[in-house]
Amino acid sequence: MAQRKNDRRGRSDAGAALVEFAIILPLVVLLFFGIIESSWAFYQANDVRHGAREGARLAAVDWGDVNAIGNEVCDRMDFGGSTVTVTLSAATSPAEAGNRGSEGRIAVQVTYQSITGFLDAWLGGKQITSDVDFNLEQPTTGEASWWNTGLGGSVTCS
Questions:
Q1: How far apart, in whole angstroms, are the C-alpha atoms of residue 121 and residue 119?
Q2: How is the chain split into domains, by residue range?
Q3: Residue 59: closest CA among 154, 149, 148, 136
Q4: pTM (2 d.p.)
Q5: CB atoms within 10 A of CB 36
Q6: How far is Cα 80 from Cα 103, in angstroms, rounded to an integer?
Q7: d(Cα 53, Cα 38) in Å, to the nearest integer?
Q8: Are strands 84-90 and 103-111 parallel, antiparallel or unpaired?
Q9: Share of residues in the chain with pLDDT > 70 (%)
Q10: Would you state the torsion angle of the CA atoms of residues 18, 21, 23, 25, taken in this order, to the nearest 10 degrees?
Q11: What pLDDT digit, counting tens, does each position of 79-94 carry?
């Protein structure tokens, strides 16, 4: 008879483990996919910051016009299939625009692209943006070719 009592305890413990697993599994899955999505969001934010820094450097040395700089920023970023918006603007008055030392600003914006779709309720459709202020280094006279009479411009690429 003592043998039967031990068998019953073993079976009930096995069932408890299954119930505990069923309770914990959704939390583990949420944690796992949350880590993946958070890492992916951090990667995209880093890439946007990188693109803004690269664009600021190109604009500071008067690399070309707004379209050339915007397309180069898009080429240097790793956003295949996403729409990237690059905006260049003058931070100083138009009278000072284009002279060495005058200030400009570049803004890069991308819509967050989910990798798993698991957290789209929280992260889906969010905009990732980065703004960088810079000083124009190149032209000593005249106007920077991207400055467009102090107004700058915007480029959207995919």
A1: 5
A2: 2-157
A3: 136
A4: 0.78
A5: 15
A6: 31
A7: 23
A8: antiparallel
A9: 78
A10: -140
A11: 766 788 998 887 766 5
Q: How far apart are the C-alpha atoms of 43 and 82, rounded to whole Å?
A: 14
Name residue 24's amino acid.
I
Most confident segment among 46-55, 71-80, 117-126, 136-145: 46-55
Instruction: Decide if 68 contacts 99 (C-beta within 8 A).
Output: no
Q: What share of the chain is helix, strand, coil (3-state, %, to 5)?
A: 45, 20, 35
Helix and strand numbers, DSSP H then E, in the chain: 3, 4
Distances (CA, A) of 61 to 98, 101, 114: 11, 11, 35
* 127's tokens: 């905009």
Distance CA 68, CA 145 (A): 10
Q: What angle do helix axes 2-60 and 66-76 make, rounded to 10 degrees?
A: 150
Query: Which residue type is seen at 35?
Result: I
